[in-house]
Design a protein that fits this description.
Number of strands: 10
Radius of gyration: 18 Å
Bound molecules: flavin mononucleotide
CATH topology: TIM Barrel
Strand order of the largest sheet: 3-4-5-10
CATH architecture: Alpha-Beta Barrel
Strand content: 15-25%
């Protein structure tokens, strides 16, 4: 019998967590290639940790351009959604609760990770001194400097918000919730003392 509060149940909205241990999102770069698909190894990994009160899954791109590191899983193709379903089924079978971390990394990626495209961001300003893990098709994947992104157009923003996040919510593969990560956002860089791109007009905030 545990008396430590850590092991006491917790109500989180409509969810009843069996304890207060929360596994944070941790990128593992283990998705199947090609296609960045969640797989059986990932199902085993998360099921082994289902005893935590809540698992926040690793950062998962909602759009091909939102992928930062090589081999991270996506959730924008039917194959990827099916891959995540086997993960959530394995976690639920062990009585676990899991959220997806939906992310779009903005400028903190590299053309090698996004099919040769130029990364998109709020402004066309490079994240100086920031490196990302790439697979450039050689036998030597590794960390490289980011490049200068292009500023998102309104159409880009609509695509990411509308066709990305909202569509994925509808097709959510039985996650119990979402954690949204505009990863490497200006606030995060500011907190770390890094370079901060100038703000755009504040017309794109609000609830998802
Ligand atoms: C290997 C590794 C991968 C990580 N991947 C992610 C990620 O995918 N998304 C995210 O938001 N944070 C990620 N993080 C940050 C962790 O969530 C963070 O380290 C954790 O919440 C503990 O916080 P602390 O490092 O400030 O103590 C990662 C950390 C590590 C060590």
């Amino acid at each position: 019998m545990h008396h430590d509060p850590l092991f006491c149940p917790l109500r989180l909205g409509q969810l009843h967590l069996s304890n207060r241990i929360v596994m944070p999102p941790m990128t593992r770069s283990r998705a199947s290639q090609p296609g960045d698909v969640a797989n059986a190894m990932m199902a085993t990994y998360y099921a082994q940790r289902a005893g935590a009160g809540l698992i926040i899954g690793e950062g998962t791109q909602i759009d091909p351009l939102g992928k930062g590191y090589a081999w991270t899983p996506g959730i924008h193709s039917a194959e990827q959604v099916a891959g995540w379903k086997q993960v959530t089924a394995a976690v639920h079978a062990k009585g676990g609760i899991m959220f997806a971390q939906l992310w779009h990394v903005g400028r903190v990626t590299h053309p090698d990770n996004i099919g040769g495209a130029q990364p998109i961001s709020s402004s066309a300003i490079k994240a100086e001194g920031v490196k990302v893990f790439v697979d450039n098709g050689s036998d030597a994947p590794g960390f490289v400097e980011t490049v200068t992104p292009r500023a998102m157009t309104q159409a880009d923003i609509d695509a990411v918000v509308g066709e990305g996040v909202c569509r994925q919510r509808q097709r959510r593969p039985r996650f119990c919730g979402d954690s949204h990560s505009p990863c490497h956002d200006p606030g995060r860089h500011r907190r770390r003392g890094g370079p901060v791109p100038p703000g755009r007009p504040q017309c794109h905030g609000g609830r998802l």
